[in-house]
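Before relying on records like the one below, remember that each one covers exactly one chain. Contacts with other chains, cofactors or solvent are not represented anywhere in the record.
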Amino acid sequence: MILIVTDYSVAQTAGDYRTVASGNWNNPAIWQTYDGASWLNAGISPSSSDGLITIQSPHYITINSSLTADQVVVNNGATLENVSSFTIPNGTGTDMDVNGAFILNGTLTGAGTIEINSGGSFDWASGYFGSTGTLNVNTGSAYTISSSNNKFFYDSGTINNYTTCTWTGTGGVYMYNGTPAFNNYGTFNINTDAGFYNYYYGSVNFTNEATGTVNKIGGTGETSFQSNCSYNNYGTMTVSSGTISFSGTGYNYGIMNTTNTGILNFPAGICHVMTGATFTGAGHVAITGGVFSIDGTSSATGCSLDWSSGNMSGASVFNFNSGSSFNWIGGYFDVSGIINVNAGAAMTISSGNNKFFYNNG
Protein backbone atom coordinates (compact mmCIF):
# COMPACT_ATOMS: atom_id res chain seq x y z
CA MET A 1 0.00 0.00 0.00
CA ILE A 2 1.33 3.46 -0.92
CA LEU A 3 0.18 6.40 1.18
CA ILE A 4 0.36 9.76 -0.57
CA VAL A 5 -0.08 12.81 1.64
CA THR A 6 -1.15 16.01 -0.08
CA ASP A 7 -2.28 19.40 1.12
CA TYR A 8 -5.82 19.74 2.38
CA SER A 9 -8.03 20.86 -0.48
CA VAL A 10 -11.75 21.21 -1.00
CA ALA A 11 -13.94 22.98 -3.51
CA GLN A 12 -14.08 26.69 -2.77
CA THR A 13 -17.24 28.22 -1.42
CA ALA A 14 -18.23 31.84 -1.00
CA GLY A 15 -16.54 33.33 2.04
CA ASP A 16 -13.33 31.29 1.79
CA TYR A 17 -9.97 33.06 2.14
CA ARG A 18 -6.43 32.37 0.96
CA THR A 19 -3.10 34.15 1.31
CA VAL A 20 -1.31 35.77 -1.62
CA ALA A 21 1.78 37.01 0.28
CA SER A 22 3.59 36.81 3.60
CA GLY A 23 2.81 39.32 6.35
CA ASN A 24 0.68 40.00 9.41
CA TRP A 25 -2.71 38.27 9.55
CA ASN A 26 -4.55 41.56 10.12
CA ASN A 27 -3.26 43.07 6.86
CA PRO A 28 -6.04 42.72 4.24
CA ALA A 29 -3.51 43.15 1.42
CA ILE A 30 -2.16 39.61 1.91
CA TRP A 31 -5.59 38.01 1.46
CA GLN A 32 -7.99 37.08 -1.29
CA THR A 33 -11.62 36.01 -0.72
CA TYR A 34 -13.85 33.86 -2.89
CA ASP A 35 -17.20 35.33 -3.91
CA GLY A 36 -18.67 32.12 -5.30
CA ALA A 37 -17.28 32.63 -8.80
CA SER A 38 -13.75 34.04 -8.54
CA TRP A 39 -11.01 35.13 -6.13
CA LEU A 40 -11.00 38.85 -5.29
CA ASN A 41 -8.73 41.06 -3.23
CA ALA A 42 -10.01 41.09 0.33
CA GLY A 43 -11.24 44.23 2.04
CA ILE A 44 -10.72 42.82 5.54
CA SER A 45 -8.71 39.96 7.01
CA PRO A 46 -10.54 36.69 7.84
CA SER A 47 -11.95 35.53 11.18
CA SER A 48 -14.22 32.82 12.59
CA SER A 49 -17.23 34.31 10.78
CA ASP A 50 -15.71 33.37 7.42
CA GLY A 51 -15.25 30.08 5.58
CA LEU A 52 -12.13 28.02 4.97
CA ILE A 53 -8.92 30.00 5.57
CA THR A 54 -5.84 28.67 3.75
CA ILE A 55 -2.22 29.73 4.35
CA GLN A 56 -0.52 28.97 1.04
CA SER A 57 3.13 28.03 0.46
CA PRO A 58 5.62 29.68 0.80
CA HIS A 59 3.87 32.34 2.88
CA TYR A 60 4.86 33.16 6.47
CA ILE A 61 1.88 34.60 8.35
CA THR A 62 2.17 36.20 11.79
CA ILE A 63 -0.77 36.62 14.16
CA ASN A 64 0.26 39.92 15.75
CA SER A 65 -3.05 41.01 17.27
CA SER A 66 -5.95 39.27 19.00
CA LEU A 67 -7.69 36.84 16.64
CA THR A 68 -10.55 34.34 16.70
CA ALA A 69 -10.57 32.00 13.71
CA ASP A 70 -11.30 28.39 12.77
CA GLN A 71 -11.33 26.26 9.61
CA VAL A 72 -7.66 27.24 9.25
CA VAL A 73 -5.38 25.21 6.95
CA VAL A 74 -1.62 25.67 6.87
CA ASN A 75 -0.35 24.16 3.63
CA ASN A 76 2.91 22.26 3.25
CA GLY A 77 5.69 24.86 2.94
CA ALA A 78 3.70 27.58 4.71
CA THR A 79 4.18 28.87 8.27
CA LEU A 80 1.77 30.33 10.81
CA GLU A 81 3.26 31.96 13.92
CA ASN A 82 1.22 33.27 16.84
CA VAL A 83 2.85 36.08 18.83
CA SER A 84 -0.40 37.51 20.21
CA SER A 85 -3.69 35.90 21.32
CA PHE A 86 -5.22 33.23 19.07
CA THR A 87 -8.60 31.65 19.92
CA ILE A 88 -9.71 28.58 17.97
CA PRO A 89 -13.40 27.84 18.66
CA ASN A 90 -15.04 24.50 18.04
CA GLY A 91 -16.85 25.68 14.95
CA THR A 92 -17.99 24.34 11.61
CA GLY A 93 -15.66 21.94 9.81
CA THR A 94 -12.05 21.25 10.76
CA ASP A 95 -10.84 23.82 13.24
CA MET A 96 -7.15 23.82 12.26
CA ASP A 97 -5.14 21.52 9.97
CA VAL A 98 -1.36 22.00 9.89
CA ASN A 99 0.54 20.47 6.97
CA GLY A 100 3.24 23.13 7.17
CA ALA A 101 4.59 24.80 10.33
CA PHE A 102 2.81 26.22 13.39
CA ILE A 103 4.85 28.18 15.95
CA LEU A 104 3.43 29.21 19.33
CA ASN A 105 4.98 32.33 20.87
CA GLY A 106 1.77 33.86 22.21
CA THR A 107 -1.47 32.66 23.83
CA LEU A 108 -3.54 29.83 22.38
CA THR A 109 -7.11 29.38 23.65
CA GLY A 110 -10.45 27.96 22.54
CA ALA A 111 -12.31 24.64 22.40
CA GLY A 112 -11.29 23.68 18.88
CA THR A 113 -9.17 20.76 17.69
CA ILE A 114 -5.78 21.26 16.05
CA GLU A 115 -4.27 18.52 13.89
CA ILE A 116 -0.53 18.63 13.20
CA ASN A 117 -0.43 16.23 10.26
CA SER A 118 2.35 14.05 8.85
CA GLY A 119 4.93 16.35 7.27
CA GLY A 120 3.81 19.29 9.40
CA SER A 121 5.49 20.70 12.50
CA PHE A 122 4.64 22.34 15.83
CA ASP A 123 7.14 24.35 17.88
CA TRP A 124 6.11 25.55 21.34
CA ALA A 125 8.78 28.23 21.72
CA SER A 126 7.07 30.30 24.41
CA GLY A 127 3.67 31.50 25.54
CA TYR A 128 0.46 30.08 26.96
CA PHE A 129 -1.43 26.94 25.99
CA GLY A 130 -4.81 27.65 27.57
CA SER A 131 -7.05 25.75 25.22
CA THR A 132 -10.03 23.70 26.37
CA GLY A 133 -9.77 21.73 23.15
CA THR A 134 -7.29 19.17 21.82
CA LEU A 135 -3.96 19.41 20.04
CA ASN A 136 -3.01 16.19 18.21
CA VAL A 137 0.60 16.01 17.05
CA ASN A 138 0.34 13.09 14.66
CA THR A 139 2.74 10.40 13.46
CA GLY A 140 5.20 11.72 10.89
CA SER A 141 5.09 15.30 12.11
CA ALA A 142 7.82 17.20 13.99
CA TYR A 143 7.24 18.45 17.55
CA THR A 144 9.63 20.64 19.53
CA ILE A 145 9.47 22.42 22.87
CA SER A 146 12.27 24.93 22.51
CA SER A 147 14.07 28.07 23.70
CA SER A 148 14.91 29.55 27.09
CA ASN A 149 11.44 31.07 27.43
CA ASN A 150 9.02 29.59 29.97
CA LYS A 151 5.75 28.05 28.81
CA PHE A 152 2.42 28.06 30.66
CA PHE A 153 -0.02 25.15 30.48
CA TYR A 154 -3.48 25.78 31.93
CA ASP A 155 -7.25 25.38 31.62
CA SER A 156 -8.49 21.90 30.63
CA GLY A 157 -7.02 21.28 27.22
CA THR A 158 -5.24 18.14 26.03
CA ILE A 159 -2.02 17.63 24.08
CA ASN A 160 -1.69 14.19 22.48
CA ASN A 161 1.78 13.33 21.14
CA TYR A 162 1.90 10.53 18.57
CA THR A 163 5.27 11.45 17.08
CA THR A 164 8.75 12.29 18.43
CA CYS A 165 8.74 15.35 20.66
CA THR A 166 12.13 16.87 21.50
CA TRP A 167 12.35 19.25 24.48
CA THR A 168 15.38 21.54 24.39
CA GLY A 169 16.37 24.88 25.91
CA THR A 170 16.13 25.98 29.52
CA GLY A 171 12.50 27.12 29.53
CA GLY A 172 10.24 25.18 31.88
CA VAL A 173 6.54 24.35 31.60
CA TYR A 174 4.46 25.92 34.39
CA MET A 175 0.98 24.71 35.38
CA TYR A 176 -1.77 26.95 36.73
CA ASN A 177 -5.53 27.54 36.79
CA GLY A 178 -6.91 24.26 35.54
CA THR A 179 -6.24 20.59 34.85
CA PRO A 180 -4.62 20.22 31.43
CA ALA A 181 -3.38 16.84 30.21
CA PHE A 182 -0.33 15.72 28.24
CA ASN A 183 -0.62 12.20 26.78
CA ASN A 184 2.44 10.63 25.17
CA TYR A 185 1.73 7.85 22.67
CA GLY A 186 5.02 8.34 20.81
CA THR A 187 8.50 9.37 21.93
CA PHE A 188 9.18 12.22 24.34
CA ASN A 189 12.88 13.13 24.39
CA ILE A 190 13.98 15.39 27.25
CA ASN A 191 17.23 17.06 26.20
CA THR A 192 17.25 19.64 29.00
CA ASP A 193 17.16 20.06 32.77
CA ALA A 194 13.91 22.05 32.55
CA GLY A 195 10.81 20.55 34.15
CA PHE A 196 7.07 20.73 34.81
CA TYR A 197 6.71 23.26 37.62
CA ASN A 198 3.99 24.43 40.00
CA TYR A 199 2.85 27.99 39.32
CA TYR A 200 -0.60 28.89 40.62
CA TYR A 201 -3.25 26.38 41.69
CA GLY A 202 -3.23 24.34 38.50
CA SER A 203 -2.27 20.71 38.00
CA VAL A 204 -1.34 18.72 34.92
CA ASN A 205 -1.76 15.01 34.29
CA PHE A 206 1.20 13.55 32.39
CA THR A 207 0.50 10.07 30.99
CA ASN A 208 3.02 7.92 29.19
CA GLU A 209 0.78 5.49 27.35
CA ALA A 210 1.57 1.81 26.64
CA THR A 211 3.08 2.72 23.25
CA GLY A 212 4.95 5.68 24.71
CA THR A 213 8.62 6.17 25.50
CA VAL A 214 10.05 8.95 27.66
CA ASN A 215 13.82 9.46 27.46
CA LYS A 216 15.96 11.92 29.40
CA ILE A 217 18.90 12.09 27.02
CA GLY A 218 20.42 15.50 27.81
CA GLY A 219 21.30 17.69 30.77
CA THR A 220 23.27 16.41 33.73
CA GLY A 221 20.98 18.07 36.28
CA GLU A 222 17.38 17.41 37.30
CA THR A 223 14.17 17.43 35.29
CA SER A 224 11.48 17.81 37.93
CA PHE A 225 7.83 16.83 37.71
CA GLN A 226 6.72 18.88 40.71
CA SER A 227 3.89 18.17 43.16
CA ASN A 228 1.11 19.58 40.94
CA CYS A 229 2.05 17.20 38.15
CA SER A 230 0.47 13.76 38.49
CA TYR A 231 1.97 11.04 36.33
CA ASN A 232 1.00 7.65 34.96
CA ASN A 233 3.45 5.32 33.24
CA TYR A 234 2.13 2.44 31.13
CA GLY A 235 5.06 2.45 28.71
CA THR A 236 8.82 2.91 29.16
CA MET A 237 10.69 5.74 30.88
CA THR A 238 14.49 5.84 30.62
CA VAL A 239 16.92 8.17 32.39
CA SER A 240 20.20 8.17 30.46
CA SER A 241 21.51 11.52 31.66
CA GLY A 242 21.03 13.37 34.93
CA THR A 243 17.92 12.89 37.07
CA ILE A 244 14.15 12.75 36.65
CA SER A 245 12.29 13.42 39.89
CA PHE A 246 8.58 12.90 40.60
CA SER A 247 7.05 14.81 43.52
CA GLY A 248 3.36 14.33 42.76
CA THR A 249 1.01 11.35 42.85
CA GLY A 250 1.69 8.75 40.21
CA TYR A 251 1.09 5.18 39.08
CA ASN A 252 3.72 2.99 37.46
CA TYR A 253 2.39 0.04 35.46
CA GLY A 254 5.28 -0.07 33.00
CA ILE A 255 9.07 0.05 32.85
CA MET A 256 11.22 2.67 34.56
CA ASN A 257 14.80 2.28 33.39
CA THR A 258 18.03 3.99 34.47
CA THR A 259 21.41 3.71 32.79
CA ASN A 260 24.65 3.81 34.79
CA THR A 261 24.61 7.63 34.58
CA GLY A 262 20.90 8.07 35.30
CA ILE A 263 18.94 8.60 38.51
CA LEU A 264 15.20 8.25 39.05
CA ASN A 265 14.22 10.15 42.20
CA PHE A 266 11.04 10.12 44.31
CA PRO A 267 11.48 13.02 46.80
CA ALA A 268 7.80 13.56 47.70
CA GLY A 269 4.25 12.56 46.85
CA ILE A 270 3.04 8.98 46.39
CA CYS A 271 4.39 6.54 43.81
CA HIS A 272 1.95 3.64 43.41
CA VAL A 273 3.88 0.63 42.07
CA MET A 274 1.32 -1.50 40.29
CA THR A 275 1.20 -5.08 39.00
CA GLY A 276 3.76 -5.65 36.26
CA ALA A 277 5.81 -2.56 37.02
CA THR A 278 9.56 -3.05 36.70
CA PHE A 279 12.61 -0.95 37.54
CA THR A 280 15.53 -1.89 35.31
CA GLY A 281 18.98 -0.80 34.16
CA ALA A 282 22.36 -0.17 35.75
CA GLY A 283 21.49 3.14 37.41
CA HIS A 284 19.86 4.24 40.65
CA VAL A 285 16.29 4.59 41.90
CA ALA A 286 16.32 6.97 44.89
CA ILE A 287 13.49 7.17 47.42
CA THR A 288 14.28 10.38 49.29
CA GLY A 289 10.83 11.19 50.70
CA GLY A 290 7.13 10.70 50.24
CA VAL A 291 5.54 7.26 49.92
CA PHE A 292 6.66 4.35 47.74
CA SER A 293 3.56 2.16 47.76
CA ILE A 294 3.83 -1.45 46.56
CA ASP A 295 0.28 -2.04 45.31
CA GLY A 296 0.89 -4.88 42.88
CA THR A 297 3.42 -7.63 42.20
CA SER A 298 6.42 -5.77 40.81
CA SER A 299 10.19 -5.98 40.63
CA ALA A 300 13.65 -4.49 40.23
CA THR A 301 16.27 -6.03 37.93
CA GLY A 302 19.81 -4.71 37.57
CA CYS A 303 19.32 -1.34 39.24
CA SER A 304 20.10 -0.10 42.73
CA LEU A 305 17.15 1.06 44.86
CA ASP A 306 18.46 3.50 47.48
CA TRP A 307 15.93 4.32 50.19
CA SER A 308 16.99 7.15 52.50
CA SER A 309 13.75 8.77 53.69
CA GLY A 310 9.97 8.53 53.53
CA ASN A 311 7.66 5.54 53.78
CA MET A 312 7.69 2.24 51.95
CA SER A 313 4.17 0.86 52.16
CA GLY A 314 1.69 -1.38 50.36
CA ALA A 315 0.22 -4.87 50.68
CA SER A 316 1.66 -6.67 47.67
CA VAL A 317 4.97 -8.26 46.62
CA PHE A 318 8.16 -6.61 45.37
CA ASN A 319 10.99 -8.78 44.04
CA PHE A 320 14.62 -7.74 43.89
CA ASN A 321 15.93 -9.96 41.11
CA SER A 322 19.47 -10.97 40.25
CA GLY A 323 21.77 -8.01 39.64
CA SER A 324 19.69 -5.55 41.65
CA SER A 325 20.39 -4.15 45.11
CA PHE A 326 18.26 -2.80 47.95
CA ASN A 327 20.01 -0.21 50.13
CA TRP A 328 18.08 0.76 53.28
CA ILE A 329 19.61 4.04 54.47
CA GLY A 330 16.63 5.44 56.38
CA GLY A 331 12.84 5.70 56.46
CA TYR A 332 9.77 3.83 57.65
CA PHE A 333 9.12 0.26 56.52
CA ASP A 334 5.32 0.03 56.58
CA VAL A 335 4.82 -2.77 54.07
CA SER A 336 2.13 -5.30 54.96
CA GLY A 337 3.12 -7.39 51.96
CA ILE A 338 6.42 -9.07 51.08
CA ILE A 339 9.83 -7.81 49.93
CA ASN A 340 11.86 -10.62 48.36
CA VAL A 341 15.62 -10.15 47.95
CA ASN A 342 16.21 -13.06 45.61
CA ALA A 343 19.34 -15.02 44.73
CA GLY A 344 21.87 -12.84 42.95
CA ALA A 345 20.47 -9.64 44.45
CA ALA A 346 21.96 -7.75 47.41
CA MET A 347 20.63 -5.91 50.45
CA THR A 348 22.47 -3.48 52.72
CA ILE A 349 21.33 -1.65 55.86
CA SER A 350 23.63 1.31 56.30
CA SER A 351 24.24 4.82 57.71
CA GLY A 352 23.70 6.28 61.17
CA ASN A 353 20.04 7.02 60.47
CA ASN A 354 17.41 5.20 62.48
CA LYS A 355 15.09 2.88 60.54
CA PHE A 356 11.54 2.00 61.52
CA PHE A 357 10.09 -1.43 60.86
CA TYR A 358 6.42 -1.96 61.68
CA ASN A 359 3.02 -3.22 60.53
CA ASN A 360 2.83 -6.86 59.38
CA GLY A 361 5.43 -6.93 56.63
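DSSP finds no helices and 45 strands in the chain.
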